[in-house]
Amino acid sequence: MADKSSGQIDTVMREERLFPPSAEFVAKADIDSMAAYETLWNEAEADPEAFWGKLAAELHWFKPFETVLEWDEPFAKWFVGGQTNVSYNCLDAHLGTERENKTAILWEGEPGDERSFTYKELHAEVCKFANVLKTLGIGRGDVVSIYMPMVPELAIAMLACTRIGAVHSVIFAGFSAAAIADRNGDASAKLQLTSDAAWRRGKQLPLKATIDEALAKSPSVEKCVVLRRVGNDVTMQEGRDFWWHELMAEASADCPAEPLDSETPLFILYTSGSTGKPKGIMHTTAGYNLFAKKTFEWVFDHRDSDIFWCTADCGWITGHSYIVYGPLSAGATVVMYEGAPNHPDEGRFWQIVEKYKVTIFYTAPTAIRAFIKWGDQFPERSDLSSLRLLGTVGEGINPAAWMWYHRTIGGERCPIVDTWWQTETGGIMMSPLPAAVPTKPGSCTKPIPGVVPAIVDDDGNPVAANRGGMLCIAKPWPGMLRGIWGDEERYREQYWSTVPGMFLTGDNARCDDDSYYWIMGRIDDVINVSGHRLSTIEVESALVSHPHVAECAAVGRPHELKGEAISVFVTVKDVEPSDELRDELKAHVRKEIGALAVPDDIRFTAALPKTRSGKIMRRLLRDIASGNTEVGDTSTLEDYSVLAKLRGEEE
Ligand code: WTA
């Protein structure tokens, strides 16, 4: 039993199954044994600067760096004195090699249209658009705000910015005008990129109309470039708005990549923190590029014959690092899909896997739970035999969902890489290297070479094996954020003030007897019941292993006697919600975990409220569970009707 004051967290989840990779998978891999992984990790740990300094030779340097790392906590400078260019590393580096005519992007639109670009073709498009940016007065350090659908031009725009040293701020195309204006203001964005509309489940999302509203409140934005994607009517403001295709028609394809200092800002990406105000996470050039490339190669065991599909949107860090920068630096072929997984039906993803013979598939647990709910008939309709490796990111994956992914999608032959990382970390921090580290369902297993995690209690002392604590990173790594845009104080305070000398991730974790890491949710997702601190994810895992639970979220609410009570929100499958089912679920949790974790109340709901990136809105659920009338900021709610439904349930 944990002592409450020590900051330790009780753990009740035990997962004993171990899944080693098949001999066939191992035979083709570079890092092909636990010993090989450990050698690499130990080498990095013993001398990180030598380790990263050596790997940095994989990037193109206009000017070699002099110092690998200057660390003045909490400010890191990597590859000081050197000059490189991310767009060069992603494109030019492959020209004149056998990858020149290799496909870089295989794109499919939601209506079924297709386009593809070889590295050479992509290079030409990026050069042209970089020239367009220049004619619009964009240069080094200028911030370009991008609000676009998942079309190739989104990647082209990002790469064009990096080519000339402009800083992009991609805003997910589901955000409201107010949210865009906030972000544009915070970043002092100078140029806006958008499209007429986007396709979403067969409907048109009027992006340009939203941008018109946002730009009315974005005084720093001078001009706006509009891509014609859908063909709907839009208002073009004379002198401010320009058509993408008209500018491109006149642009030259000659635009050499500019040599940029290693620490040149590369992009800003806004993410939500513990307060309502979004933080502009800032990444820079050389360190981020190297980290995205190496983590891509290591974690996905990338071979030149692979077809890699990451289903994220470029509006999130996963799209930045594993659709654009990591894979393209590694010369990979990526699939990019514009639309929803359930359009025209719930089998769309599996049709795409079959059609493009996808070999590596990387998605989020929230999507996996949706697939489970939709039923096995959809994946069963498609030939998924091209797949050789599966991945997950974004939240913990419940062992039950992991097993479904393993069996139904992976045909029991594909290793699963459960990748733990954050917008702040730039790239994957913990994940099995698939041919080296046997997996345990629900565990992100081990740190990537060069990553040194630590789990500490409230006093900053390391906790023992199997005890939960705050997950920190003990040493700087090349992909780390360099700050919060325009807010040094918040950067120090948020990440570097809680545990001396360490980066605070904001997640809880535990390490088991085999030194496998288990993420236990955010620090504020801890429920304290009668002096037991429980992680919400553990309660959820137990519930999701019940055959009639599709998805669930557990939160704490104040309770007179226990301190906190456990409140869970459940969406069911195959049966109607009933009091009997409620009792059955309580009994199930009691059986899976023990009496201390039995939920005090179970609410059935048609759907859980989610942010646009698919994260369950726990703050809102906590508010609902504790009966507060005032709910927090819900501007990122996917569907407001869910809130109303949940409130109806309460009465
Ligand atoms: C959570 C997404 C458990 C975690 C790349 C983290 C995970 C936050 C996992 C970052 C995982 C991400 N297992 N939890 N494999 N991956 N998380 O910034 O709480 O959108 O701190 O970056 O997602 O979310 P972000």
Major sheet summary line? 8 strands, mixed
Sum up the overall morphology in one term. Answer: globular
Average pLDDT number:
91
Query: Which molecules are bound besides the chains?
Result: 5'-O-[(S)-ethoxy(hydroxy)phosphoryl]adenosine
Could you tell me the number of beta strands?
30
Annotated CATH architecture of the domain at 524-648: 2-Layer Sandwich
- Which range does the strand content fall in? 15-25%
Query: Which percent range fits the helix content?
Result: 25-40%
Q: Which structural class should the secondary elements be placed in?
A: alpha/beta
The oligomerization state is single chain
CATH class of the domain at 524-648: Alpha Beta
Q: Can you tell me the CATH superfamily of the domain at 524-648?
A: ANL, C-terminal domain
Low-confidence spans:
1-7, 629-641
Radius of gyration over all CA atoms, rounded:
24 Å
Distance between the termini: 36 Å
Biggest sheet strand order reads: 12-11-8-6-7-14-15-23
* CATH level-3 fold name of the domain at 524-648: GMP Synthetase, Chain A, domain 3
Please work out how many helical segments DSSP would assign: 20
Question: Outline of this structure?
Answer:
The chain is an alpha/beta fold. 53% of the residues are buried.
